[in-house]
């Protein structure tokens, strides 16, 4: 009988363990995914609340009113069509054509689900209609407009699809985020080309092969695992053979003898493919994962599609070599590539992107203020210092020269990624970079889809980055206060 | 002399339900609401005292289960009052069933030849839905009789516990094995996966509890795992269940709808809940049975949800204590089996509702709407209470002998 008692006790503890798992799992999943589940446009509770609560206003960082609710309960956006189109992907729209815009993702604040019991009681007794919280975003809506104009003004990017992100690399604040083609939330049918997928937020929801911008990761990996290579010279013959495939350089250039910094600045695929093979797939993948590839992004303020580095083992040298310059199933969103450039600028620390600056209760009391959150440490500070030097060289005497402005210290990396879209080969132009200036600590990421033959990231995306840098210098008070 | 640790708890439980039902009664403004606000606390008080006088039952365990039953009635009254009135009737039936089970445990210290009759009855009961049942939610586990629907597998639970405990107390493993496997086969044929999992788990744990044979238990676990993998390969609906569990959002409109709505309810409730009577709990499919825990969490919040789990933990703890205090192998195993039946069922359904494990359609003990479930679970506590009263008798006997 004694043994039986001990066994009973063991079984009881087994059950306690099971119930503990229930509690921990339930708490964990609601804490991490709760807001995502709640703000889903499938949640009928939100629909019910919309009948009885007046949604709060949304402002940008300079107090520009982006969205409000009129006396009939309809959502009202800015008066100018250009202004509405510039921020529609980031903001979302009341019909929820755009997934996970602020209008839908922050439903809990906008529709007063965070109101306290006291506020509920006050509204109940005063008889006034309940109001949701007002949101103050980190973005500068005028910069968003300027970026859309910049795409239109350059002949190499005019009419192209694309996306661009500007973020503060020290704090993680998102200063601007656009996606092209765009649409007007008030006239959804007008000018909407269904093939161009205008409702798709390309900055956060699409992942693209990062192309040569991924060489930031490859170079950081090489500096970490093969530091002696930084001093060595490589020979680019223009026809590196891997598993029977030939690695070509952009425009079939032959670069000759280069050191790592020069190879990085002229974006030599041959040398970076050889570097990736020497690094091995496992080590390159490790560095990529340090930069956030293959991670499940669970940012508090926005939903970002996860970036991918192939996890398959036994990849051929050709595949690994192609990974060295960002091809072969590697994919990242413009938002994530902006974070990659930002990590270099911030000495290796990657900040989580922030979109909410402040949430105010209808009474004017502060419900929530932002704080910067470190997402992860992407690389050591000494490696970041070398990378800063490399990226500066890209702009002063490499492929990124068209991003440079005379009075600012710009660092960056271009990329021209190859992919296929609906069976046809397409090229994507990339530029990621940042301003090396603690007074203007901003990183940018520019993507241009389907660029013309003979064009690259340096001739399409880099000029747009230059326009952004110019704006930052012209209006420092709009972007830093 | 018996201590009554449940006394103060009973008063707290009465207060909670008085205010909760009063709140809903003020909203609904019908006399039934006020009646419930008075009757539920009165029934809890009366039941505890009357039953406590008649037999030496464990009042703490009784208070805990009463709390859970009344919680079910409360949630049902908020979401669908008609179901709540039915539930009150079922609770009454359950009390009768519980008393019968207490008597049974006291009268038949061992069940002897009745065992074979019970096996026959169990198999017959489990075969009934296959013969005259109708398919609901993919499983054929209900019978309909003059407008009354009954789920036989709920009642076979009680018989199964008694039979298995009887065999195990006499170290008869072959009959134990045949009996458990026989029941499982019937449940497989009914496609009632949740109940099959429950029977399987309790049979195996009961085997471990009486023999302490870890290698054989692990072998049984392996066999169950193998059967699960085979079931996954063979049956399309099992595959679908697992796929929904892994990503319910992929087929939100159809198969994933239930679990997605459940998760949204959990997220809406957050820590403190939206409040009793508020929120949109009725948008969750089958909110009254399988997903009643999501409703509780939406209205009262996650913290309260954890407290409900703690109440179940207390029930398990109490049941285990009673089983440990028993001086007879059969009674101890029966009490432990009934306790584990309640505990495992709770784990399986709540695990499914919060997406920890694939969802299987079984009820939350005491809380979910439905006569079969409530009555059978109260009968299970009846088994535990019967053992508790026998323990008490044994103690008094000891006392008498020492005084003599």
Describe this protein's structure.
The complex is a heterodimer of chains A (481) and B (404). With 481 residues, chain A is an alpha+beta fold. Helices cover 39% and strands 19% of the residues of chain A. Chain A contains 16 helices and 19 strands. Chain A is globular. Chain B has one domain (7-403). Chain B is built from 15 helices and three strands. Chain B has a three-stranded antiparallel β-sheet with strand order 1-2-3, with helices on one face. The longest helix of chain B has 33 residues, at 371-403. The relative contact order of chain B is 0.14. Chains A and B meet through helix 1 and helix 2 of A and helix 8, helix 11, helix 13 and helix 14 of B.
Observed structural traits:
heterodimer; A: 481 residues; alpha+beta; six-stranded mixed sheet; 19 strands; 39% helix; 19% strand; globular; B: 404 residues; mainly alpha; three-stranded antiparallel sheet; 3 strands; 75% helix
